[in-house]
Amino acid sequence: MKRRLQKRYLVLIVGYSVVLLFIPYMLDYSSKTRQLKSALHRQRCPDLVGSFGLWNMLEGKGVNESEFPESSSNRSSSSGKTHIYLHATWRTGSSFLGELFNQHPDVFYLYEPMWHMWQALYPGDAESLQGALRDMMSSLFRCDFSVLRLYSSNKNLTASGLFGWKNNKVICSEPLCSAYQRDTIGLIDGTLCERCKGTELQRLEQECKKYPVVVIKDVRVLDLGVLAPLMRDPELNLQVIQIFRDPRAVHNSRLKSKQALVRESIQVLRSRKRADKRLLVPSRSQRAESYVSSAMEVICDSWLGDILLVRSAPDWVRKNYLSLRYEDMVLHPVRELHRLYHFSGLRNVPAMEDFVLNMTRGVGYSSEKPFMISSRDAREAIYAWRERLSTEQVSQVEAYCHEVMRLLAYQQMNGDKT
Asked: Do 312 and 55 touch, CB atoms closer than 8 A?
């Protein structure tokens, strides 16, 4: 009996010793596995993996190539109108891009109308608002502006309550306002436009319906896949123009305007970085810079998702999609202007060539009002980040944006110029 007990105790002791020796190995293996899974998670872009199935789903609903003609002049919707969304993020030069459409006499242009929703629903996270943004866009493209009242505290909302109204060529021109003629090319003086306060939304809707091309520019759609239902809707047949910019230049510009971008950076981070609590609790003294810097990583993730999504898309999507780089737009403005108008089915306006050249051949880059459109030195605007970002800041952006930079042909610091 004693021998049996001794043997049992011996087996238990040996087994216990083996377990003790095995635990560190398991912990180390588990840690490495988590790291590997995390790396794969970042590389595979799970949101994108889900989006890849989007095209197959839409194809299964009867979308076919014949519904989307190749000719740019025949790409309009079943209503006979052309609808274009300028897909961008903050500080990429999207306001300048939008101005090229705002100035065109055949375009009804809306500047960041989704701003109203983000302000009204703050601090809601950006991802949860994507469906509502799409629904709002669908209404606006159909010249139904009543949706804006849902996000305004003013029950008697007028055109002068719209974001960016003082620089809107339609709102500030005849017949809605006597300050300007619609076919006159040039930046709007907001002080002159103020004399036309109070234009009713119903009048703006009526004016919208007269224009053959409706363009919306915004920065709050995080995923191109959100727009897919609008791109397949025959009433809209939405076309998308996406602008990219060197991530280092974007980061530099965002830091310069960091106080103005804090709220929206928080909304982006809440939806895409829930797992990383460190991004949401910076020290008070560095809070603005931390939020804005952290959101830059999310922006590059979104860009990567969009680029790969388009590469996997069927022809009917690619025919309705155009991408361009800010650097190309300001260094070769006339060429890119023609490219934009050709894609959009818009006629070339000779005065616009002079306008775009003047806007990119200004003096200096700095502006006391960074969100205002003004004439600037294009080359200084492109390379200002080289002088203003520290080596550490540049390395950080290049580290988490390296794949996007490679796909968009932006060289890292140890390479050639962009």
From this structure: yes
Domain CATH number, residue 250: 3.40.50.300
- Residue 325 located in a structural domain: yes
The answer to whether residue 372 is domain-embedded is yes
Q: What is the dihedral of CA 201, 369, 333, 86, to 10 degrees?
A: -40
Q: Which of 256, 276, 309, 251 is nearest to 89 (CA)?
A: 251
Q: Region 334-338: what's the mean pLDDT?
A: 97
Phi/psi region, residue 180 (left: phi>0; alpha: psi -120 to 50; beta: rest), is beta
With cut-offs at 50, 70 and 90, classify the pLDDT of residue 5: low
Please report the pLDDT score of residue 56 as a whole number.
Answer: 57
Give the number of C-alpha atoms closer than 13 A to the C-alpha of residue 276, restricted to the C-beta side.
14
Cα–Cα distance measured from residue 240 to residue 343, given in angstroms and rounded to the nearest whole number: 10
Q: Which domain holds residue 390?
A: 76-143+209-407
Write down the pLDDT at residue 75. Answer: 58
Domain annotation covers residue 278: yes
Average pLDDT over residues 253-259: 73
Q: Is the pLDDT of residue 37 over 60?
A: no
Residue 363 has pLDDT above 90, yes or no: no
Query: 32 pLDDT exceeds 50?
Result: no
Tell me the CB-side half-sphere exposure of residue 231, using CA atoms within 13 A. 26
User: Does 122 map to a domain?
Assistant: yes
Total count of domains within the chain: 1
Contacts of 161 (CB under 8 A, 6+ apart): 148, 152, 154
The torsion region of residue 175 among left (phi > 0), alpha (psi -120 to 50) and beta comes to: alpha
CA–CA gap between residue 72 and residue 75 (Å, rounded):
5
Rounded-to-integer distance, Cα 400 and Cα 45, Å: 13
C-alpha to C-alpha distances, 28 to 3, 33, 40, nearest whole angstrom: 38, 9, 18
Q: Which residues partner with 244 through β-bridges?
A: 325
Candidate from 102-116, 285-299, 397-411 with smallest mean pLDDT: 285-299
Q: What is the pLDDT of residue 26?
A: 47
